[in-house]
Amino acid sequence: MQTHQFDAIIVGAGGAGLMAALYASMGGANVAVVSKLYPTRSHTGAALGGIGAALGNYEEDKPLWHAYDTVKGGDYLADQNAAKVLAENAVDAVIELEHMGLPFDRTPEGRISQRRFGGHTSNFGEKPVRRACHAADRTGHMILQTLYQQCIKRDVRFFDEFHVVDVLMNQGACVGVVAIQLGSGEYHVFHGKATLFATGGWGRVWRITSNAHTLTGDGAAVVYRRGVPMEDMEFFQFHPTGLYGLGVLLTEGIRGEGGILLNRKGERFMERYAPKIKDLASRDVVSRAIYHEVRAGNGINGKDYVHLDIRPATVNRYLAEAGETRRVDDAYIARVLAETLDVCRTFAGVDPLREAMPIQPTAHYAMGGIPTNIDAEVIMDEHETVLPGMYAAGEVACVSCHGANRLGTNSLVDLIVFGRRGGMKIAEYVKKADFVPLPANPTAEIEAEFNRLRSARANGKTRPYQLRKEMQAVMMDNVGVFRVEQGMKDAVTSVRELRDRYRSDLTFDDTGYKFNTDLLEAWELGCLLDLAEVTAVSSVARTESRGAHFREDFQKRDDENWMVHTLAYRKSDQPYPAGHPDIELNHKKPVDTSLAAEDPRFAPKERVY
Length: 609
Ligand SMILES: Cc1cc2nc3c(=O)[nH]c(=O)nc-3n(C[C@H](O)[C@H](O)[C@H](O)COP(=O)(O)OP(=O)(O)OC[C@H]3O[C@@H](n4cnc5c(N)ncnc54)[C@H](O)[C@@H]3O)c2cc1C
Fold this sequence. Notes:
Distance between the termini: 56 Å
Oligomer: single chain
Number of strands: 20
Bound molecules: flavin-adenine dinucleotide
Structural class: alpha/beta
Shape: globular
């Protein structure tokens, strides 16, 4: 075992982790970034469409309008103080990225180019606005490369291919993490004054997902096992346009550029569901509309998918119909949606310039996660009691600026805004704080768990992929776009059975120590199962429909009883208990409505798009 000591340990090297690392180091902290992937392979690099900021480069725009869209898009569960910070800080955060060298697309005048995106409007919902700043359709890739370069320049220490498997607590504070070095199988202890989790989402809980194979929710699971609650886990976003059968994401930027959703009859069905902004309604609304069309027999060829059409002839027809002067051609589409065309040709054999793309909703984004305040400090309860030394930012965190449904482009904003705030807070904290000592035998419990996995494999018969497949099917069918009580309860039962089999019957091949990805994949499955269980349990309890959580047995939003966040605690004093410890749900954390207190337009009302 090796021990390393740094002021700040950042777990995860996506946009949130790198931004936090950069700012903590600029504030004078000695920073280590620990990542199971090589940094530039993080999922942030897959983000295509853009990053939202009210720059107003084409038309008038204001941060307050951005905050309004965020609150409305979040179906009024977003904490309004957080949405305000998100929208206000977005403007200089994007300009700062530009100054760091991020090659944004340009307007003819040389300003940062902006495109439309779902749910983003001007003047409190009046009409769609061009708010998404983009570098073609590889914005996330550019953010990641830019931030990584800046971190290298600042001498941030990178521990790449170190898989964090436990978090260390002592004297009521977080004191670091335990990681397994992939190349050697050795345990490494990272001892820090401050530890920030930026490990991304867990879309791999579902069968059809846009998320990378690595998005298994490790960071959320390890802190949950050590007593940190999970906030708002019932809210998981399905993006409407995943490539049929594969889930690979086709960016909302396609609709932002004028792409249209069509059913079997060639109808632009979004006109019926969102008369005002049609195909650019928020994601939960569009995903449900697609399911409705499929149920009504309007799927293409009787199957469960519809078409997304970006062929210039189609786009121009609808642009003309809407009285717009803008027109597109093949060359333009090929330039601004280069990655998309490539993905479609490679994975579906479809050339979007010649034919419509087959799409279905795909599990995309965790609105819930590790609860934090607006400075990325982890909080433990409805009183916002801070857990000293622990921070979280990015998709793994729940600030909650996205509420019940995130708007497109707002995740990239979240990463850089709250990653930056977290980094600044850490720099401040480590100047004053001393190191809290490590607990005795810091790796004992996690080593015992890995030894158990290793020895159980000799007698087990089920492979991780088999259990994973079953979990994904159950969650897709019962805790997906449409939900009912019995289905969700069945999901809880099934996930618990799967976890029993995980403990008693799991097997895998590799018995070695170096690059034992078999073993780590088995361990990741344990994280997915824990998060699937919390998701299903939290979903059963919320007896209303709001944002991404849509219940057929409770179809209305219930503001009287449910303007509260869910905090789910696992009741066990052991990180790896046998059996099924209770999950205790607390519904006492109210939604922040500070903007509504000043401006009635922010008060909850029915969402009409
Ligand atoms: C295909 C796709 C397209 C998207 N497009 C957009 C878009 O256009 N605009 C937008 O706003 N949002 C978009 N999103 C969402 C957005 O990209 C993500 O929410 C965001 O990038 C998450 O960033 P992150 O920094 O939180 O984590 P990630 O970028 O996912 O990085 C996670 C990091 O954690 C590390 N990690 C995880 N587990 C461990 C562990 N156990 N030990 C050590 N390290 C660990 C990984 O190595 C990685 O470095 C898209 C998402 C997808 C999947």
